[in-house]
Design brief:
Shape: globular
CATH superfamily: Alpha/Beta hydrolase fold, catalytic domain
Distance between the termini: 45 Å
Largest sheet: 12 strands, mixed
Number of strands: 12
Number of helices: 10
CATH architecture: 3-Layer(aba) Sandwich
Number of domains: 1
Order of helices and strands: EEHEEHEHEEEHHEHEHEHHEH
Radius of gyration: 18 Å
Helix content: 25-40%
């Protein structure tokens, strides 16, 4: 598995070893799985779509909830949140709060409430505005996590999004939306700027001809230049890999010259993991694939997101 820069490939194992020289992640003993809270959830978007998902409460939520990183996981086209079940449990055991989501038109999120009736969502009729409306799905799930934040079960300011293939675009678009929102002086009534990092599995640069893309979202300065981002893609599928390379290149050219220096790696906060497989998207974190991607994601969270706890301290949110 390699990390790509414009000049050369740096083995990702070497890169993370350099980072670990400075601050090795500490992972607590994993608790027994049957004692961990897992519960279904249903939230409603501003355009009245019912979004279904599953919430995995962090293993240490009762003792250390105000430092817990919340993670929203988004699947690819024609997929479902259940594809992340094993990964969600893995991160839950490591002390992260996770929500796996069925995006509109997928899985169990197939209905828009209109008056006293339901309108069924037909995925094969989705067009560009329908895919871009998935940002509202993420916002509805974020509101659910704000409730958990106020209960002391996570810190919403450490919010991390994981997107796969098509939903990699959704994740970047939501991050741009979130960071474009203006906040009042008091953190109590903060409305946005909560997305702390992105993990993109085989992200697409664009979806369908003339369809949704990451281009406009990457005009948001913080997302393009400073937000910690990890991109993972299987290099043996050249077509899919080239799409991910396009996303990486669009961000990479905004972040200055790459370096092997551990402090510069952390400052640049852009990781591109090249995996020796033809698998893409959620399959990269499927245990049947027997890849080390979950471990590298865990290290990314520990090295790039967790250190922000010092500056992004927990404050209860108002209505």
């Amino acid at each position: 598995m390699l990390v790509k820069s414009p000049e050369k490939y740096l083995p990702i194992s070497v890169m993370f070893s350099l980072l670990l020289m400075f601050a090795a992640p500490v992972v607590a003993d994993e608790p027994e799985e049957e004692k961990l809270l897992v519960e279904p959830l249903t939230v409603r978007t501003k355009d009245f779509v019912e979004i279904r998902g599953v919430y995995y409460e962090a293993a240490n939520a009762e003792e250390n909830g105000k430092e817990v990183i919340p993670i929203i996981m988004l699947h690819g086209y024609e997929g479902a949140g259940a594809e992340y079940t094993a990964m969600a449990k893995y991160l839950q055991r490591q002390g992260h709060a996770v929500v796996t989501v069925d995006l509109r038109g997928h899985g169990r999120s197939l209905v828009r409430k209109v008056g006293d009736g339901d309108v069924e969502l037909e995925l094969d009729r989705f067009r560009k505005p329908d895919f871009e409306a998935m940002v509202m799905d993420v916002q509805a799930v974020k509101q659910f996590l704000i409730e958990k934040h106020n209960d002391g079960k996570c810190n919403i300011e450490l919010l991390t999004l994981m997107g796969a293939e098509m939903s990699g675009i959704v994740a970047v678009q939501y991050a741009a939306y979130d960071w474009s929102r203006r906040n009042p002086p008091s953190k109590v009534y903060k409305q946005g700027q909560d997305v702390c990092g992105l993990i993109l599995l085989s992200p697409l640069n664009s979806f369908r001809e003339g369809g949704t893309s990451v281009a406009l979202a990457l005009r948001q300065v913080y997302v393009a230049t400073k937000m910690p981002i990890m991109i993972v893609a299987g290099k043996q599928d050249r077509r899919a890999f080239r799409e991910s390379e396009k996303v990486h290149k669009a961000i990479d050219q905004r972040r200055g010259r790459p370096s092997k220096d551990p402090e510069e790696i952390k400052k640049r906060a852009l990781i591109f993991a090249d995996v020796s497989t033809s698998l893409q998207g959620t399959m990269l974190v499927n245990p049947q694939a027997k890849l080390e991607v979950p471990k590298y994601i865990s290290t990314f969270l520990n090295q790039f997101i967790a250190p922000k706890r010092a500056e992004l301290t927990w404050t209860k949110r108002g209505a």
